[in-house]
Amino acid sequence: MNPDPTSPASPRPPTFKRRVLRAALCCACLFALGWWILPWAVPLPEGLLKPQNVSPTFLAADGTPLRQLLTEDGQRVGAPVPFDQIPPALLHATLAAEDKRFFSHSGVDLLAISRSARDNFRHGQVVSGASTITQQLIKISAEKRKRRNLLTKITEALQARRLEMSWSKEQILPEYLHRVSYGNLLTGCGGAAQGYFNKPMRDLTPAECAFLASLPQAPSRLNPFKNLKALRKRQQHVLKKMQEAGWLTSEAYELAIAEPLKLQRGTGGFSAPHAVELLLQQCSADVPTESPPGTFRTTIAPDLQRRVEAILQHRMSLLEGKHVTQAAAVVLENATGRVLALAGSRDFFGTDSGQINGAWAPHSPGSALKPFTYLLALERGFTTASIIPDLPVEYTTPTGLYRPENYDRKLNGPVTLRTALGSSLNIPAVKVLQQLGGETLLLKTLQNAGITTLDQAADHYGLGLTIGNAPVRLLELANAYATIARLGKTSPGHCSSRPAPPRRQQNLPRCSSPPVVSSLRTSSPTTRHGC
C-alpha cells in the first residue's frame, strides 16, 4: 500500500549524514592542501631571492653624499632599510593605504577577497582589489611581467602563501618598501624620501609619510609634479584611515591635514663631478663598497672641494681676455696620497669643454718636471751653489740639432743651481740632465714616481723631457711631488677611502754619495694613479 502523502516525512537514511561529513572533510582537506601544501609546489620569483640593485652612491670623506647614480633599470633606488629603522608613521601609513590587516592574515586576505567580490558584483565592474602587501611584493619582484589573468592571480596567491610561511612579517614589509615604485624614477621608501623631500626617512612627518604611502597605488596618475590635487586627496584619505586605526591621535591628524606640502626634488647630488667620473671610469671594478651596500666612500673633503672650485672660478675670471679658457686643480695629502679635492675644469657644465677632466687628461707639464732633474743632480753631488752656465748650446739628435732656449729668450751666463731652478731656466736644466747621463735616468725616475703617460723610449723625448715636452696627468704629477715630500716613498694618489694594498716595493739604484732625498721606490714602473 502507498504511504499517505500527508503523513510525516520518513527519516533520512543514515548515509546522508556520512555524505555531508565526507564532503566537509573533503573540502577541509582541499583547503588544507591549497593553503599549506600546494604553495610549496610553486617557486618564489627569482628576483625576490636576489638582492635588489641599489643606486651607486658616492660619499665624501665625512659621509655627506656627492652623487647618486641610476641603476641599470634607470631607477634611483636607495639602500635597504631594516624594519626597526623605518619610521612607525611610514609603516602605519603604508598599512592604512595598502593592507591594514597585514599582521593578521597569512599572505592572502580571505575577508578582503569576500569584500572585493561583493563590491565588484554590486557595481558590475571592478571597483576594489584584495591583494595584500605580500602579494604585491610577489608581483613587483617578478623579473618578467606576466599577463594579468586568473591563473596569474592564483599563482601569485600561492607564492604569497609560501613567502608567508618562509619569511616573517618583519622581513616582508621592509622588502616591499624597498622594492615598490613611488614614481618619478624613485624606487624604495628611502629613495622616495630623498627624491620628494630631500631628507632622510627619519625626518619625515606623518603627513609626508602619508604622502609617500599614497603613491604606490598609481604612481603615474598621482604624480605630485603633475597632479598634486589628486594626490592630496589620496593623502587625506590615508591620514583618515590612520586615525580610524588608532595610529594617529585627533590632534596629530588635524596637524597632518593642515600641514602644507613642501616638495624639494632631490637629484642625488652632483658634487666633485670630475672625481666621481674618475672613480667610475678608472676604478669602478676596484673601489670597495661600504655599508650600506652600493655606497662608495671617497677621500674628498667637501669644504675644501668647494673652496678649490671657488678659487678656480675666481682666478679664471681675472684671466678673462687673456686666452685662458680652462684650469684644473688637485689637492693631495702628502703622507697618504689621498685626494682631498679635485676640480677638472672651471665648470663641469660649461660649454667650453667643461666635462673634460683636466686633472686626468694628459697635458704638457712645462717646467714642472725640472725639479726632478735637479733632485737627481743633488743626489749625485751637486749643491744649490753649483755653477751652471746659462749659455747657448746645441745637441745632435736623430732628428737634427736641438737648441734649447729660455722662455724669455735671454741668456744669464753662469748661474747657481738655486737660481736656475728658481728662475725656471731651460738651458741650465737641459745641461744638467745631459751631465747626469741623459734623458734615460729622468724618464725612469718619473715612471717610478707613478707617471704612466711616459710610455715611449727615452730617445723619443730626448733632453727636452726636463722642460716638459711629454704629456703627463696633473693628478699623477701632483702625486709625484708628494713622493718627494715622502722622501721618495711612492703611494699612488687615490680618491677611494680604501685603496688597494700596495705591492712589494723595489728601490732604484742608489748613487754612492749620500742622497738628499731617498731614491724613489715603487711597486713597478707602471704604478697606476687614479681613484
SSE layout:
Elements: H1 15-37, H2 46-49, E1 57-59, E2 65-68, E3 76-77, H3 88-98, H4 110-123, H5 133-141, H6 150-166, H7 169-179, E4 186-187, H8 189-197, H9 206-214, H10 228-244, H11 250-258, H12 273-283, E5 295-297, H13 302-318, E6 329-332, E7 339-343, H14 370-379, E8 387-390, E9 395-397, E10 400-402, E11 413-416, H15 417-422, H16 426-435, H17 439-448, H18 458-461, H19 474-485, E12 506-507, E13 521-522
Parallel strand pairs: 1-5, 3-4
Antiparallel strand pairs: 1-2, 6-7, 8-11, 9-10, 12-13
Helix pairs in contact: 3-9, 3-10, 5-6, 5-7, 9-10, 10-11
Please give a quick description of this structure:
The protein has 19 helices and 13 strands. It is mainly alpha-helical.
What can you see in these coordinates?
It is a single chain. This protein is mainly alpha-helical. Helices cover 40% and strands 8% of the residues. The chain contains 19 helices and 13 strands. It has helices at 15-37, 46-49, 88-98, 110-123, 133-141, 150-166, 169-179, 189-197, 206-214, 228-244, 250-258, 273-283, 302-318, 370-379, 417-422, 426-435, 439-448, 458-461, 474-485, and strands spanning 57-59, 65-68, 76-77, 186-187, 295-297, 329-332, 339-343, 387-390, 395-397, 400-402, 413-416, 506-507, 521-522. Strands 2-1-5 form a three-stranded mixed β-sheet, with no helix packed on it. It has a two-stranded parallel ribbon with strand order 3-4. Strand 9 (395-397) and strand 10 form a beta hairpin. Helix 5 (133-141) packs across helix 6. The protein is elongated, with a radius of gyration of 36 Å.
